[in-house]
Amino acid sequence: xxxxxxxAKRTPxxxxxxSLKNKSASxxxxxxxxAALESAKVTGHQIDEVIMGHVLSAGQGQGPARxxxxxxxxxDSVVAHSVNMxxxxxxxxxxxxxxxxxxxxxxxxxxxxxxSMSQAPYLLPKETRSGLKMxxxxxxxxxxxxxxTDSHYHYHMGLTAEQLAEEFVISREEQDNxxxxxxxxxxxxVDDKAFVREIAPVRVSVRGKEEWFSEDEYPNRKxxxxxxxxxxxxxxxxxxVTAGNASGINDGAxxxxxxxxxxxxxxxxxxxxxxxxxxxxxxxxLRMGLxxxxxxxxxxxxxxxxxxxIDYLEINEAFSSQSIAVLKELSAQHAVSEESLLxxxxxxxxxxxxxxPIGASGSRILVTLIHILREKNxxxxxxxxxxxxxxxxxxxxxxxxxxxxx
Length: 406
What we know:
single chain; alpha+beta; 35% helix; globular; Thiolase_acyl_enz_int_AS; Thiolase; transferase; acetyl-CoA C-acetyltransferase activity; EC 2.3.1.9
C-alpha cells in the first residue's frame, strides 16, 4: 500500500516571547491542522485520528493533541494523541500515522507537531508536594530540563554540539560562516515570499488590535560575520558554540494530511508526495547530533535510493557544528562531496535562522521540503533531525507531480 501526503501547512515561526507568545501549543496546532485539511480538500469527518508531536506539555492541560483537534473544528468522534520524541516528535507523529495506514488501522490521518516554548512553565522541586521542612529551593525551568538537557548525562544540548566541534575539528569561523549563510538563505526566502504557500497565518493581538501574523520573524537581518564573531561562547568558556550559531527557541506548529492510495483514488484527492522511506537511529547521547547519519542511511535503503539520487535535503540545524558534522559524515560515507550536499540542503535556510520550536520542527522541515520539491520540479527529498538523548529520524519522499521534461 502506498501512503501519500495530500496537505501540508505550517504556521509562521515566532521568536521566543515574540508574536506568538500568547498562543498555546494546541492553539497553534489547531491553525496548522485546519489549514492542512483545507489545502487537502478533506473534511474533519473523514479523519481517523490526529497525532501531534509535542514536547513541553507541563501545564498545557489534558490531551494537548485533542485540544488542537477540537480547536481545528474536527468532530468529537476523531481521536487524538501526542508524541514526545523530543526534536523528532513531529516526524515521529507522521511515521506513526504512516504505519497505521500501512497496517490498515486507518485511511486518513492528520499528523504534525506543535510547540510554545514561550509558554513553558517554571516548576517547583518534586519534594514540594510531600512537604518542605526548611531551606531555600530553586525553581526548575521546564524549557531547559524537559526540552534542552540530556537526561542521561545531564548535558545541555549545547555541550553535545561542543563535543562534535572538537571531534570533527570544526572551527568557530566555520560555525559562524554556516550560521550566516543560513540567515542569508532564510532572509532571501522570506523576501521572495518563498514560504507563502506553506504558511497558515495566525490571528494575534498587537497593542489591543487583532492582526494576522504571517511571516517568520526569527531571521536576523542585522547579523553579520563580524557580529557573530563577537558573541561569547554560550556553554563553555573556551567553546565555540554561541547563540548565533545555534538554533532558536521558538513557537510554531505544522501539520500534514496522510492518506492511503485507495482513499486518494476514491476521494479524488491530489497527492503532493509519496512517503517511500523512513529511518531511525540511536547513538551515544553525547554525539546526539550525528543521529541523522544512520537514520538517513536506513531511510534511503528502504526507498532503494542512494544519496546522490536525492534532489533536496532538509536537515534540521540544531547547531552549526552539528550540521557540519552530519554533512561531513554523509559526504564520507556516501562518496558525495560536501559542497554538492551543502548546495541542496536547507536551501531556504534552517533552524539557526528560521527557529526550532522543538515539537513542531520534525513536521515543519517536511512541509518546507514538500513545497520545495513541487516548486523546483524535483523528484526526491530527504528530511531528517537529530534528537536529544542520542537519536536520529529521517524520511524520504517522492514528488508525485515530478515531470521528466520540465
